[in-house]
Specification:
heterodimer, A: about 110 residues, mainly alpha, 3 helices, about 0% strand, B: about 1000 residues, two-stranded antiparallel ribbon, elongated
Chain lengths: ~110, ~1000
C-alpha cells in the first residue's frame, strides 16, 4: 500500500510541477490542482497508513488504532485554502487574458 | 501618581489630541483652527509655568508607564530644568507662531491641515524633550522629522516644496536611524534605556570600547537634525516651507533638537576625544561656512537659513569645548538665538507678505513704508550681530571669552579666538546687509505690491519676541537668570559654574574681540557693498561652491540606479524562469540534508523505516493505476484540450478522495468531494472566457528545438521533484509515528471539546483560531474575485455567442416551428427537473452534515459547500435570470454574518474571563429532540457554515453573471471597441482594461 501511495504522490507531483512550469495560464492552474492533491496526500502520509481507523470516538472504537487526526485537520485547511487559491487564480487568469490579449503567464508571448 | 507627574505626559499628548480635532474642522475654519492651536500652545506654557517650581535646583519630575515590559521598556516622562527650558521655548514660540500664521496664511490655503500638522509637531517636539527613555526619545525624534516633512511640503503643488521636504526627510530620517543605533549601543553598554540611568553611567560608558561608535552614531543624528557640516545642506532647501514653519521649525525648535540631544548627553559623552574633535570641528566649520555663505544670499530667508546654520555651529562648537562654562553659554545662546531668529523670520515673512518679494536686491528703502516692522527687524538683527543691550551680545561674549580658555592646547585651540572673531564678523556683515539693503537706500519702485505695515496682530508676535531680546539683554540676571541656572543645574549638577549674567564685564578680551568683529563686519560690508548690491549679479564667490544639494542628488540618483541594477540582475518579470528557480531551490533544499548525511555520515539516512509494509490491496492498486492515467492525461491535454484536461483533473481528484476514504480520513473525503464539485463548476464557468487555442505551426527549427529543450528540462525537473516526493513519503510512512501533540487531541476531544469527531474538534475548538484565519482568507478571496469580475472585460474574440450556441441558433432558425433558443431551453430537460427538485433534499443534507459535524464526519465547511451546491444546481437547471427572479441570495451578507458570528463566538469567552475562542459545551434537554449535546463551538461552526455559503456562491455567481453581461454587450462589436457603454463599472479609465 505504502509503495502504491508513494508512487501516486510522485506521479501527481511530477505532472503538477511539469504543468506549473508551462507557459499557458490554464496549464498552470491545472498544475496547481494536481500539485495540491499530491501535497495533501503527502501531508496525510506523514502519519502512518491506517485502514479502518477513522479518528471518530464511538462505542467500542479502539483509540490506539486511530489514524493521526492532526495531519487530517491540516489537510482540511489546505483543501479550503487551495480552493480559494484556484478561484482567485482563475479570475486573475481571465482578467489577464482580457487585459493583455494573451494567456501566456508573462502577459506577452515569448519573444522568439 | 500625583498631579505633577500626570501633567508632564499631558504636555506632550495634548497637542496630538487637539491636532486630531483640528484636522476634522472644515477647510475654511481659520479662526477655530488657529484658536484651538493657540489655546493648546498657551496651555502648554501655563502648565510649564506651573511646573517650574518642581524643576529648580536640579529637581526632576519623573513618572513612567509600562510600555513593553517583556523587554524592559517603559514610557518615561521626565521634566528637569533643561527640558523645562525647551518646553517653554516650544510652547511659547509655538503660541506666537500660531498667532502669526493665522494672519500669514492665505485664505485659500487649507488652514486646518496646517494647524493640525503644526500641533502634532509641537506634540512631537515636547515629547522629545520630555522623554526619559532613549528609545522613546528616538521615536519622537522621528516623528518630528515626519511632521517637518509634512510642514515643509505643505504647499505640495510647489515643486521646490516637495523637493525640500523630501531632502529634509531623507537627511534627518537617515540621521534618526543612526541615532537609534547609537541609542541601542548606549543602552547595551549601560544596560538600560532610561535616561536617568544613562546619565549616571559615565564611568561605564568611558570604559566601554563601544563608546566611540556610540558617540559617532548619536552625533550623526544630532548633526543631521541641527544642520551641522557636512549635513547642513537640507536646511536652506527647507525654506520652501511657509514662513511660520521656518520661524518655528527651522529657527526655534526642530533644528534645536540636535542641540538638545547633545546638551542632554553632554554630561556622559563630552570630554572624550571622539566628542571633542568631532563636535568642535563640525561646529567650527559650520559656524564659519554658514556665516560666509549667508553673506552672499539674495533671498531674505536664505540669509536667515545660513545664519541659523552658522549660529547652530556656534552652539555646537561650545558644546564640543566640553567645559561647564561653555555648556552654559550653549544653553543660553540656544534660547537667545530662538528669540531673535524667530522674530527675524517673522519679519522676513511680513516683508514678503506685504511687498511680494524676498529678494534683497529688489527690496530697498522700505523703512519709510513700514517703520514699525523696520524698527523691530533692526533690533532683532542687532541682537543677531551681537550688539550690546541685546541678548545676542551677552551669549556671544560668553562664547568669545570661552574661546580664550585653555582646553587641549592643540592648534585648533590656539586659533580659536581668531576664527571665532572672523565668524562673528560674518554675523555682523550679513546682519548689516539684511537691514541696510532692505530698509534703507533709494525707495524701490518695481515691487510686486505696494508695501505697507501689516495688520497689528501679525506684528504682535514679533514685538513680543523683540521685547524679550531687549529685556534679557538689559537685565539678564533678573529675567532669565534663575531659569538658566536650573537648566544648567540639570545638565551639570555640582559642576555648574557660577555664571555672572551681566551686561558689562569691563574691558575684557572678549569685549575687545566683539569690537574687532563689529568693526571687521562693517568694514567688509563697505568693501563688498557694490558687489552685494548689484542686482544682476548671480555669482556666489567661493562660498557658493559648497554644493551639498548636488552631492545629495548624486547620491540619491546613484542609489536608484544601483537598486535598478540589482532588480535587473536578480529579478525578472517572467514567471516561468522564476517558478523554475523556485522548484529547483525547493528540490535542492529537500535533497540537501540527505546529501550532507551521505557525505558526513551524520543524521538519519534516507532509507525505508522499520515499520512493516501494509499488504497491498489490488483494488487500491487499480484505483491508482487510474489515478496515474488521469494525472498524466491532465498534464498532456492541458494545452489544447482544456475541457478534457479539466475532467481528467477532477477524476484524479476523485481518486484522491477515494484514497482519503481508504486511509481513514472520512472528513477529508467529504470535503474533497464537495470542493471538487465546486471547483469543477467554477473552472467550467471560466473556460467559457478562454479563447480557442490551436497548435501554432512553428516552422523555424531553431525555435522548435529551443522549445523542446525547455520542455525536456522542465520534464526532468518534474521527474526529480516527483521522485523526491515519492521517496520522502515512503520513508515517512515506513517509520513509526512520532508521539506529538496528536495524542493530546485524541485524549481531550470529548472531555475538552465535547465532540466525538476529533478532526472537527481540532478545527473548531483546539485550533479554532487557525480556522478563523482560514475562513477570513476565504471571505477575502471571494470579495476579491467579486471585485475583479465587476470590472472584468473578456477577451474580444470570446465576446458573443459561443460556437455551440451559434450552431443551436442556426438549427432553430432553419426549422420552421422552432424559435431561436428552443434547443437551449429543451436541453437536458429531464435532468433539469430532477435538479430543480433536488433543492430541498440537498438543503436537508447540508443541515444534516452541519449538525452531525461535531460527532461524525461533516461539519460547517462541508455543509456550507453543500448548501452552495444546492444553489448552483438551481442556477444550472434554470439559468441565472430565472433563479434570481425568484430567489434573493445575498452572499455578501452571508459572508459578513458568518465572520461576525465566528468572531463574536470567540470574543464571547472574554465575558467569562477566558482567552479568545475558549469553548464550552453542555448537554441540553430540548423538547421533541431530547437531550442534545451543545457546544459553543457549534456556534463557531455556524459562522463557518454561513461564510462558506456566502463566499462560494459569491464567486460562482460573479462568474455566472458574466454571461448575462456579455449577452447585453454582444449586439455590436463596434460598440465594444468603443468600450464600455452599459456596464455599471464603465468609467473613462476603464478603457485601458477593456476589450483588446
Amino acid at each position: 500500500m505504502e509503495v502504491v501511495l508513494a508512487l501516486g504522490i510522485g506521479v501527481l507531483t511530477a505532472a503538477g510541477v511539469y504543468l506549473v512550469l508551462r507557459p499557458r495560464t490554464f496549464q498552470v492552474i491545472i498544475g496547481m490542482s494536481l500539485l495540491t492533491y499530491a501535497v495533501n496526500l503527502f501531508i496525510l502520509s506523514m502519519g502512518s497508513l491506517v485502514i479502518g481507523g477513522a479518528p471518530v470516538l464511538a462505542e467500542g472504537a479502539d483509540v490506539s488504532k486511530f489514524a493521526d487526526p492532526l495531519p487530517q485537520s491540516l489537510v482540511l485547511t489546505s483543501i479550503v485554502i487551495s480552493f480559494s487559491m484556484t478561484a482567485l487564480f482563475l479570475v486573475i487568469l481571465l482578467a489577464a487574458r482580457g487585459l493583455t490579449g494573451t494567456d501566456h503567464v508573462d502577459g506577452e508571448e515569448a519573444r522568439p | 501618581m500625583d498631579l505633577e507627574t500626570t501633567l508632564v505626559p499631558a504636555l506632550a499628548l495634548l497637542p496630538f489630541l487637539v491636532s486630531g480635532v483640528v484636522l476634522l474642522l472644515p477647510r475654511n475654519a481659520r479662526n477655530a483652527a488657529a484658536g484651538l492651536a493657540g489655546a493648546t500652545a498657551l496651555a502648554g506654557v501655563g502648565i510649564a509655568a506651573w511646573l517650574y517650581r518642581g524643576v529648580t535646583d536640579g529637581k526632576v519630575i519623573e513618572g513612567s508607564w509600562a510600555w513593553l515590559p517583556d523587554i524592559g521598556l517603559r514610557l518615561t516622562w521626565r521634566l528637569d530644568g533643561l527640558s523645562w527650558l525647551f518646553v517653554l521655548l516650544v510652547a511659547g514660540i509655538g503660541a506666537l507662531v500660531v498667532l502669526y500664521a493665522r494672519y500669514y496664511m492665505a485664505a485659500d490655503d487649507p488652514v486646518p491641515r496646517f494647524f493640525s500638522y503644526l500641533l502634532a509637531f509641537m506634540g512631537a517636539m515636547l515629547g522629545l524633550v520630555l522623554s526619559g527613555n532613549l528609545i522613546q526619545l528616538v521615536i519622537f525624534w522621528e516623528l518630528t522629522s515626519l511632521l517637518s516633512f509634512l510642514l515643509i511640503g505643505y504647499w505640495h503643488h510647489n515643486e521646490n516644496a516637495r523637493d525640500g521636504a523630501r531632502m529634509a526627510l531623507t537627511v534627518t530620517g537617515f540621521g534618526g536611524f543612526l541615532l537609534l543605533i547609537g541609542a541601542i549601543i548606549i543602552g547595551h553598554i549601560v544596560g538600560s534605556f532610561e535616561l536617568s540611568t544613562v546619565l549616571a553611567s559615565r564611568d561605564a560608558l568611558t570604559a566601554s570600547p563601544l563608546l566611540t561608535p556610540a558617540i559617532l552614531c548619536v552625533l550623526a543624528g544630532a548633526f543631521a537634525k541641527s544642520a551641522q557640516f557636512p549635513l547642513q545642506f537640507w536646511l536652506p532647501h527647507a525654506m520652501a516651507a511657509p514662513t511660520p514653519v521656518s520661524a518655528y521649525l527651522h529657527s526655534a525648535t526642530m533644528v534645536k533638537a540636535g542641540i538638545y540631544l547633545m546638551i542632554r548627553l553632554w554630561p556622559v559623552l563630552a570630554g572624550h576625544d571622539g566628542w571633542y574633535y568631532t563636535v568642535s570641528l563640525a561646529g567650527l566649520i559650520t559656524f564659519l561656512l554658514g556665516g560666509a555663505v549667508a553673506v552672499f544670499q539674495n533671498d531674505l530667508k536664505g540669509i536667515l537659513a545660513y545664519s541659523t546654520i552658522s549660529h547652530l555651529g556656534l552652539i555646537t562648537l561650545l558644546l564640543g569645548l566640553s567645559t561647564p562654562a561653555a555648556a552654559v553659554a550653549a544653553i543660553f545662546h540656544t534660547l537667545n538665538h530662538a528669540t531673535f531668529k524667530a522674530s527675524l523670520f517673522m519679519a522676513a515673512g511680513i516683508i514678503d507678505h506685504e511687498t511680494g518679494t524676498r529678494d534683497v536686491r529688489r527690496l530697498s528703502g522700505l523703512f519709510k513704508h513700514m517703520p514699525l516692522t523696520g524698527t523691530l527687524a533692526i533690533v532683532a538683527a542687532a541682537a543677531m550681530a551681537g550688539v550690546p543691550l541685546l541678548n545676542g551680545f551677552i551669549s556671544k561674549e560668553m562664547f568669545l571669552s570661552e574661546t580664550f580658555e585653555f582646553h587641549t592646547g592643540s592648534l585648533l585651540d590656539r586659533l580659536l579666538p581668531l576664527l571665532a572673531t572672523l565668524g562673528s564678523a560674518f554675523g555682523v556683515l550679513y546682519s548689516v546687509r539684511f537691514i541696510h539693503q532692505v530698509f534703507f537706500g533709494p525707495e524701490a519702485t518695481d515691487l510686486p505690491r505696494k508695501p505697507h505695515e501689516p495688520v497689528s496682530w501679525m506684528r504682535l508676535p514679533v514685538e513680543l519676541l523683540v521685547a524679550i531680546c531687549l529685556v534679557v539683554g538689559i537685565i539678564p540676571a533678573a529675567s532669565v537668570g534663575p531659569m538658566l541656572k536650573s537648566g544648567a543645574l540639570a545638565v551639570l549638577g555640582a559642576e555648574t559654574p557660577n555664571v555672572q549674567l551681566e551686561l558689562w564685564h569691563g574691558f575684557t578680551p572678549a569685549f575687545l574681540l566683539s569690537l574687532v568683529a563689529m568693526a571687521l563686519g562693517f568694514g567688509l560690508y563697505i568693501a563688498l557693498y557694490h558687489r552685494l548690491a548689484n542686482r544682476t549679479s548671480t555669482d556666489r564667490p567661493w562660498a557658493g561652491r559648497v554644493r551639498g544639494r548636488r552631492t545629495f542628488n548624486d547620491v540619491m540618483a546613484s542609489l536608484e540606479l544601483a537598486s535598478a541594477a540589482i532588480v535587473r540582475f536578480f529579478g525578472t518579470v517572467r514567471l516561468q524562469p522564476q517558478l523554475f528557480l523556485v522548484v529547483t531551490a525547493a528540490a535542492a533544499a529537500g535533497a540537501a540534508p540527505f546529501v550532507y548525511q551521505a557525505i558526513t555520515k551524520q543524521g538519519s539516512p534516507l532509507t525505508l523505516g522499520p515499520s512493516p509494509l501494509t499488504p497491498v490491496s489490488w483494488s487500491f492498486l487499480v484505483l491508482w493505476l487510474f489515478g496515474v492515467v488521469f494525472a498524466v492525461g491532465a498534464a498532456y491535454l492541458a494545452k489544447f484540450h482544456r475541457v478534457a484536461s479539466l475532467i481528467f483533473t477532477s477524476a484524479a481528484g476523485l481518486v484522491v478522495c477515494a484514497t482519503f476514504v481508504w486511509l481513514s480520513a472520512p472528513d477529508l473525503a467529504v470535503t474533497q468531494l464537495l470542493v471538487e464539485i465546486v471547483t469543477t463548476v467554477l473552472l467550467l464557468l471560466g473556460l467559457r472566457w478562454l479563447p480557442r487555442r490551436s497548435a501554432l505551426s512553428v516552422t523555424d527549427r531553431a525555435v522548435r528545438t529551443r522549445a523542446n529543450l525547455r520542455r525536456g528540462r522542465d520534464l526532468a525537473l518534474a521527474l526529480v521533484a516527483g521522485a523526491g516526493m515519492a521517496v520522502l513519503a515512503l520513508a515517512a510512512m515506513t517509520r513509526p509515528n512520532v508521539s506529538g501533540i496528536s495524542e493530546f487531541f485524541v485524549t481531550n476531544a470529548l472531555s475538552g471539546g465535547g465532540g466525538h469527531n476529533i478532526v472537527n474538534v481540532i478545527l473548531v475548538d483546539f485550533r479554532g483560531f487557525d480556522t478563523l484565519g482560514e475562513i477570513t482568507v476565504l471571505g477575502i478571496v471571494a470579495l476579491t474575485v467579486f471585485a475583479l469580475l465587476r470590472r472584468f472585460r473578456p477577451a474580444r474574440e470570446v465576446v458573443g455567442s459561443t460556437r455551440q450556441q451559434q450552431r443551436q441558433d442556426a438549427y432553430d432558425e432553419a426549422l420552421s416551428g422552432r424559435s431561436v433558443g428552443d434547443t437551449a431551453t429543451d436541453y437536458l430537460f429531464v435532468p433539469r427537473i430532477v435538479m430543480h427538485l433536488l433543492f430541498p433534499i440537498v438543503t436537508l443534507f447540508a443541515l444534516h452534515l452541519f449538525l452531525r459535524g461535531h460527532d461524525h464526519p461533516g461539519g460547517g465547511f462541508a455543509a456550507g459547500i453543500t448548501m452552495a451546491i444546492a444553489f448552483i444546481l438551481q442556477y444550472m437547471a434554470r439559468g441565472t435570470r430565472w433563479v434570481e427572479e425568484r430567489l434573493r441570495v445575498l452572499p455578501l451578507r452571508w459572508i459578513g454574518l458568518g465572520l461576525l458570528l465566528a468572531v463574536a463566538t470567540g470574543a464571547g469567552s472574554w465575558f467569562f474571563g477566558r482567552p479568545f475562542l475558549t469553548s464550552a459545551h453542555e448537554t441540553v434537554e430540548l423538547p421533541v429532540l431530547g437531550s442534545v449535546p451543545l457546544a459553543s463551538a457549534t456556534l463557531f461552526d455556524l459562522g463557518v457554515f454561513a461564510l462558506v455559503i456566502g463566499a462560494t456562491i459569491l464567486m460562482l455567481i460573479a462568474l455566472a453573471h458574466q454571461s448575462i453581461r456579455s449577452a447585453r454587450q454582444a449586439p455590436t462589436a463596434e460598440e465594444l471597441a468603443g468600450a464600455t457603454s452599459d456596464a455599471p463599472a464603465a468609467k473613462p479609465g476603464a478603457d485601458a482594461e477593456g476589450v483588446g
